[in-house]
Amino acid sequence: MDTEKLVDLLKEVIVDHECILTDNADLHSYSYDASFGVHVPDVVIMAKSTIEVSNIIKLANEHEIPVYPRGQGTSLSGGPLPVKGGIVLDLSKWKDKLVIDPGDMVAVVSPGVLTAQINNAALEHGLIYPPDPSSSHVSTIGGNLAENSGGPRGLKYGVTKDYVIGLEVVTPEGEIIRTGGRTVKNVTGYDLTKLIVGSEGTLGVITEATLRLFPKPQATQTLMVLFEDVVVAGKAITNILSSGILPSKMEIMDQASIIAVEDYQPMGLPTDVDALVLIELDGHLAAIKDELKQVIEVCKSVGSREINVAQTKQEEAELWKARKLVSPAIVRVKPTKISEDATVPRSQIPEMFKRLQQIKAKYQVDLVVFGHVGDGNLHPNIIADKRDHEEMRSVEKAVEEIFRAAIELGGTLSGEHGIGTLKAPFMEMELGEVGLEMMKRIKRSWDPNNILNPGKIFPEPGQRLVLTDD
């Protein structure tokens, strides 16, 4: 169908025609995300109601037009890219509902609400929304639901799917359904809520979510532990967790990360160590004091070089600021950042560090390691220049080997970024042929015309990881 005819049909089901974008500049604004690749849609629609989304999907399904749900475009895996043209459904402007119910300890939200806004609203009632992806100040809850996003607090509190108890969803055929509800317990039939969360927009368009909230912890305590060897840091982490202590956060920065941050914004971090680990304990103040002593003892027993405990909230904030500065700091070295999130079992963290060091040396790439090390969710980032095609080909090989290392160690391709387009070629590596086929059957059952976010998760024949334009 040509674009002009498509727009005419859309105008019949959309009240505000200004929400339909067809100008070339607008279309190109929706052609990319925070990953790789540029794919221009035929039309963009800024949706703001469930009925409107339902009508759009019914029209698209009837004419077999691809539809790509999109939030703020912060995806690192190509999640919202319109790889087959069609319609981009922009849900980022749909933010009219953010209701906190302190009695039921839930939040009811529209898909365009920023994730950090939910936590801020909950704090006014002495509650928190625990999932805290690093992009929470700019990413929408709809996008976080689609990708099942995590974050530093995932170690203790879990990821997005652990807090979703109810959804309103428009199916690929345009029907409106509700899954789950407002109760913490619900075992009525199949758990469609958990199926939708993390399906990356391939099974339905989320138009409303009901989220669990938690009581705000009474106190927190942060410490920074320095190590001469990143592998020893990995051993310290596994020993802390096996000792019965569950910190709310455990984040690691390798030497390259530390140096990049110090060059970007000097904070007095030691650049002569191989790694530093930031640990946050939360809960009752008396319990934190006891856990702090145990953590210090464990770290000393494995050979940490130095341990610094934040004495004030300002010092605590400064330590976490250093961790948040890693991403903007490393791209000053080279302009292209390949951010991966291969995740391994906690017991394999030291071995994964060894593998990453070997991969860095083998392919001579600028590999920086940081991330949510407490749950094995590492972020091996490679910084490069995408204009240098020879370098990027080495990067492609290194990334593939990172995935293989994670899977060989009993891990997974993605802990929080999702599969999208970038990791699709490696799905069979983890799931096997039959496992992948079972997922494809679910997709075909829900979306027989394959209109919702086609080209994602499942590999196309002969598809491989490509980070260059040649």
From TrEMBL:
Residues 37-216 form the FAD-binding PCMH-type domain. InterPro entries: FAD-bd_oxidored_4_C (IPR004113), FAD-bd_PCMH (IPR016166), FAD-bd_PCMH-like_sf (IPR036318), FAD-bd_PCMH_sub1 (IPR016167), FAD-bd_PCMH_sub2 (IPR016169), FAD-linked_Oxase-like_C (IPR016164), FAD-linked_OxidoTrans_Type4 (IPR051914), Oxid_FAD_bind_N (IPR006094). PROSITE patterns: FAD_PCMH. The keyword Flavoprotein applies. Its cofactor is FAD. SUPFAM superfamilies: FAD-binding/transporter-associated domain-like, FAD-linked oxidases, C-terminal domain. GO terms for molecular function: (S)-2-hydroxy-acid oxidase activity. Its EC number is 1.1.3.15. Gene3D superfamilies: 3.30.465.10, 3.30.70.2190, 3.30.70.2740, Uridine Diphospho-n-acetylenolpyruvylglucosamine Reductase, domain 2, Vanillyl-alcohol Oxidase, Chain A, domain 4. Pfam families: FAD-oxidase_C, FAD_binding_4. Keywords: FAD, Flavoprotein, Oxidoreductase. PANTHER family: GLYCOLATE OXIDASE SUBUNIT GLCD. This is Glycolate oxidase. It comes from Aquibacillus albus.
